[in-house]
Amino acid sequence: MTAIDHDPAVPPASWTIRTFHPRRGRMSDRQTDALNRLWPAYGLDVPDGPVVPVDLADLFGRRAPVVLEIGSGMGDSTAAMAAADPDRDYLAVEVHTPGIANLLDLVDRHGLRNVRVGQGDALSLVSGLPEDSLDAVHVFFPDPWPKARHHKRRIIQPGHVALLRSRLRPGGTLHCATDWAEYAEAMRETLEADPGLVDAYGGFAPRPAHRPVTKFERRAITAGRPVVDLLYRRR
Ligand SMILES: C[S@@+](CC[C@H](N)C(=O)[O-])C[C@H]1O[C@@H](n2cnc3c(N)ncnc32)[C@H](O)[C@@H]1O
């Protein structure tokens, strides 16, 4: 089922409203070296503009279930999950160059062969993926955009969710986590309202052991903000 009401070759104009903050960051020598050495083999450019189709079997050099990690940050979760789950491939997507370089360094240090990283807007990347091609989509600690006038920048909103769901295989999972209570409630309402998704737990999900603790979760715990997980399956 697809609820996409636009030409799939052209991202909708609303996606020009970015879900991320442009930010700069310094890279360590180690990250710079990892980026230079590993980008050609493990990196994927995600251009803005017309959609570029992505052939996942070609990208990973094999046919295996694929997990998409949206906004992989410094890459700690992606690297840890990929290391623990060698039979699935992990496609991370991030805009922040130091984070991408850090993930490539982790890939190198742990000898991971099942990770690729796209640089660019996750929504453009997802538009270029075939329907039914993903085993899971992870959206961990997305920017909460707390001010009401910025809510349209949130990654979890109906049009984006319809796109993500269309790329999941039937039975595939959309897993979100956040420490922002108001966003958690908005996520739940949005995911509940999607006709092609079914809540795997009837409310917020128990924290799964396979989701590694990152600095965002540690910060939330220190500040006393509860972290919630939401797990939905494509019908
Ligand atoms: C708060 S961080 C969380 C990082 C990581 N998931 C974690 O749990 O540690 C959110 C990340 O999502 C990235 N991001 C937000 N929207 C994105 C998009 N549309 N495409 C790619 N990355 C995005 C941001 O650059 C940022 O690094």
From TrEMBL:
Coiled-coil intervals: none
Gene3D superfamilies: Vaccinia Virus protein VP39
Pathway of action: tRNA modification; N(7)-methylguanine-tRNA biosynthesis
Highest taxon, organism lineage: Bacteria
Pfam family, one: Methyltransf_4
Keyword Transferase: yes
UniProt-listed InterPro entries: SAM-dependent_MTases_sf, tRNA_(Gua-N-7)_MeTrfase_Trmb, tRNA_methyltr_TrmB_bact
Keyword Translocase recorded: no
MF annotations from Gene Ontology: tRNA (guanine(46)-N7)-methyltransferase activity
Sequence positions that bind substrate: 147, 179, 214-217
Alphabetical list of CDD domains matching this protein: AdoMet_MTases (cd02440)
Keywords: Methyltransferase, S-adenosyl-L-methionine, Transferase, tRNA processing
Residues annotated as binding S-adenosyl-L-methionine: 69, 94, 121, 143
UniProt cross-references to PROSITE patterns, sorted A to Z: SAM_MT_TRMB (PS51625)
EC number, as in UniProt: 2.1.1.33
Catalysis: reaction(s): guanosine(46) in tRNA + S-adenosyl-L-methionine = N(7)-methylguanosine(46) in tRNA + S-adenosyl-L-homocysteine
Reported function: Catalyzes the formation of N(7)-methylguanine at position 46 (m7G46) in tRNA.
NCBIfam families in alphabetical order: tRNA (guanosine(46)-N7)-methyltransferase TrmB
Annotated family: Belongs to the class I-like SAM-binding methyltransferase superfamily. TrmB family.
Name of the protein: tRNA (guanine-N(7)-)-methyltransferase
Gene: trmB
